[in-house]
Every structure is written in structure tokens, then in C-alpha cells.
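Lab meeting prep.
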Amino acid sequence: MDDKVNYTLVGAFVLVLGAVFVAAVLWLAAGLGGQRAVDPYQAVIRESVAGLNVDAPVKYLGVDVGKVDRIEIDPQDSRQVRLRFLIDRGTPIKQDSLAVLKTQGLTGIAYIELSGGSAGSLPLVAGAGGVAPTIPFKLSLGARLENVLTNVLANVDRVSNNINAVFDADNRQALKSALTDIAALSHSLAGQKDAMTAALKDAGRTAQLTARAAEQLGPTLDRIASSAQGVEDMAAKAGEASTRAARAVDTAASGVAQLGSETLPELTRLMTDLGELATSLRQLSEQTTGNPSSLLIGRPAPSPGPGESEP
């Protein structure tokens, strides 16, 4: 029985099997089974694309829909990176879709993740002249965390500088002096503890006496309130009396005015008549005194004056 192995046949079989495996891999990678139609898209990113290579996958909600075709510095702004994608035709890229740079697992291999966009958004189409449409790019989680950490570290650094400025040599000396004074004050207060306790007890007794005085003061306040009410009633009555007096004065004034306008003229005429009567009586008295018979025969005729003849 021949148990020798033909190594030539074994080697040939291994080589053929390896060639078939490589061909299958190349066929799957290069799409030898049929080329798929793709559409070009582009995106502009303002962050590092470390780990992202050409032919890196482009995923739509986790589904492979294309690959990265080109990576280059934006000729219009050197702070940005321009990416070009080849995405399967028919992929629902919307105008509000976003592209995000992500890494998968622990390997650190980067890829592009596309979001679906809203249902009512219009499809993103090529611009004039066949220019590849630009998908808006959103900063990756790592970039956002880096920005946040940068701001936090800047704030921490600023706070540290402010603290160092506050606690400089002069301020530290002042703080030390203040702490020394506080310690001395604490010792002084501790020495006056008995006096403070006695003062607090006195204050308590004073508060109790004040409460008792307040209780006793209540009836007095009630009596004062009653007296005040009586004074207020008297004031009201006095006001009413004053009102009545004012009315009486007004009435008297009206009477005086009437007396001045009606009675006084009559009185004046009466006094004039009395004056004339008194004059007549005086003349009659003088005539009677000089010639009493004149009451019977009348007054004699006056004597003629110089140059006058008797009648």
C-alpha cells in the first residue's frame, strides 16, 4: 500500500483555491457583478478629517450608500476641507440632510454618516452646470466636545488667573490680619460670655415686664379711646353750634341792613321836623317874654327903619 502524499497536487490545489478567493474578493470590491449608478455630492467641513480616507464608506442612517471619492483642502478657504462623495442613485438626499464625520468602534476608522432629513423637504439636486450639490455638514461629536472643553479650559484658566490676582501677596497679608482680628474678637467674646448671658437674662425679664405692661395698658388705651370719642362728639356739637351762630349773625346783619335802608331816612326826617318845631317854640317863647300881650293881639308891627315912614 502506497502512503506517500503527492505534494505537487496539494500545492496546486492551494494555489487554485487562493486565486479563486482573491478573485471573489476583487469581484465583490470592484463590483464585477455589475456597476451601480451613482451621483456625485460634496460637503465642506471645518474640522480635522484625520482617519478618513478615500473610498471610506458613506452611510445613510447606518446603511452603506456610497463612498468618499476625494478629499482636498478647500481652495477658497484653507481652514476647510472639501469632500466629494459618490452616492447610489435613488438615495433620498434631502435639502435639510446633514453629513457628520464619525468613527466606528475602537478601530478609529472614520466614515461619513448622512441624516434622513424631514419628510416634507425637497430633494437635493445638482446646481447649474452640473455642479455637485453640497450637503450641509455638522460638526462631529468629537469636534463639539473639543470646542466645549476648549471653552471650559479657557474659563478655568481665566478663573485661576483671577484667583491668583485676588490672593496676591498684599491680599493674603490683609486676609491674614483679618483672620487674626477675628480670632482676637472671638477670644474677647468668649471672655464676656458670662456678661452676655446675664444681659440676655435681663433682656428676657425686660421682655416679660413689657408684656405685662402691655396687658395692663390695654384697658387704659380703651379708656383713652372712649375719651377721644367723647371729645370728637363735643367737637361735632361745637361745630353745629358754630353753624347756628353763623346763621344768627347772618340774620342780624340782614336786620341791620334793613334798618339802615328803611328806618334811618324816616328817623332823619323826624329829627329835622323836631328841629324846626324847637326853633318855632324858641321864637314863641322869646316873643312871649318880651310882649306877653302878643298872645292875644298878635305880634306888633316892626318899627320903620331909617328912611322909612310909618304907614
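Slide two material, second protein:
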Amino acid sequence: MVFNAKILLFGEYTIINGSKALAIPYPKYSGQWKFSSTSKQRSLPALASYLKEIMQEDARFNFFNIEQFQKDIDNGIFFQSSIKEGYGMGSSGALCAAICHKYFEHKHTDFITLQSVLAKIESYFHGASSGLDPLVSYLNKGVLIVHKNELEIIEIEHIPTSGFFLIDTLMPRKTQPLVQIFLEKCKDLSFKQRCENTLAQLTDEAIGAFLVDKPTILKNALKKISIFQFQYFTEMIPLKFRAIWQAGLVNEQYCLKLCGAGGGGYILGYSDNFQATFEQLASYNIEKIIL
């Protein structure tokens, strides 16, 4: 069983304040269980201890087979993954999805409950988790967060990704410090209101246009998101990419937005003319990947 990476297309940061968000699986990178005579994943024993503790206080874990998990760890199981760590692609989420799939004897069919269980597992890695990353990997489907207690599952064949590309910053980053920056900025009421109103509305527009494949409306919404993030999320845009970001806004050849927390990892781009866009990006020696 293979568990794919994920990309948060829309909703970075605004999801914290309750706006819509859309994440999709990204099968270019994935992970799966393997066995080896030499240990390849030191985090698993500590993770098993963590899960053993929460089993004593959380009834949702009554069907978790901790004995089998511990036995497999002793026999050399590890999660072989090509998902880049520190890129916002859901490396820990894929592992948590794999754990839930293999070791829960009773499969949760309610997506909200499943998301909360996965969030509890992933909190081992991040201190807190929405559960969105592992849910996308577990289902291998797109997940639309309508609001906190409402999800919509989107089949992969209904996900139109034409026009999108990724820029590799070659800079791994950690999510938690960046989220902390955002939370500090939200203490400024005017900034918080801009995010909850302007940015959230633009995110809703982009998601709506994306799901019904209306590229003109999508491009317009993405450009406005790009402008907003360039103005108000400057700390999350790596310094060497700010000129590239601004150039796309000026010449309207492409637009860039954060892919997850930002700060490194991947930057998400959109263009309706890949040839012209990539010719321009080539002058910056930028590595890009078409979704």
C-alpha cells in the first residue's frame, strides 16, 4: 500500500481562522512500509511509546493494535519515503496515514472522526495538527475543508491541475515557527480582519473556480492572492524569491503563492502559458515541476 504526498492548493494560514481549504494528493512522491534487518527509522519506537500513552486516555484508539506495531518495529519495519521533509508535502502525514491504515483493526468510516484520529497521531511530530495532511494521504483523494466540522471528498479524476507548477526553493523549513509568526501577526486586529475577510474570500473564489474548471476566474483570484501574500506575508517568502514573485505580478506572465506554510520548500505557481513562463524563470535558474 502506497501513501502519497499532498499539496495544499488553497487555504494556507486562513484555514487556522476557519476558512475553506483544499488539499490534493501528489503521487510524484510517496511512502510505504518496508522491513530491514537494520533499523532505518529511529522515530518509530518513540512514536509507539507516545501512542501507547494516548491509548490509555482516548477511546478512539481502542482498536489500535499497539502490540503488532511494537512487534513489527522489533522486526525492522520502517517507512520508506520519497516525500521531502520540510517541504510542506506531508511527509509526516503519509507516515501517520500508513500507521492508521495498517494498525487500526476497526477502520473509521466517519471522515471527521478519522481526521481527528490522524491529527492525534500527527501531533507527535508537530505539537498540533489539523489532520488534513494524513487524511489526504489515507484516502488518496482531494479533501475540501468547508468548515471545521464539514468535509467534502473529491475524486482524483475530478481535480483539474492544468496551469499549476511548483518551484523548488531548495530550502527545507519547519512549519511551527512560521505558524507562530502568523499567530503573532494576527494580534494586530487589522491584519486579522484582512485575512478573515479579504484573503478568505479570495480563497473561496479560487477554490470555487478551480473545482468547476473556470481558468479565467481562477487566474484572477490567484493573482489577487499573490498580491495579498506579497504585501502581508513577506516573512514567509524566501528573500531570493521575492523579486521573482514580484516580476510575475508586474508582467502578468505568471503568479506565485505560498504552498503551505512557505518559508522554503515549494512555491506554487500558476500560468496559462508555460513556455513563456518557463523561459522567464530559466533566467533565474529556477527548478520547476509541472503538477
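Talking points for slide two:
The chain has ten helices and nine strands.
The chain has two domains: 3-157, 160-290.
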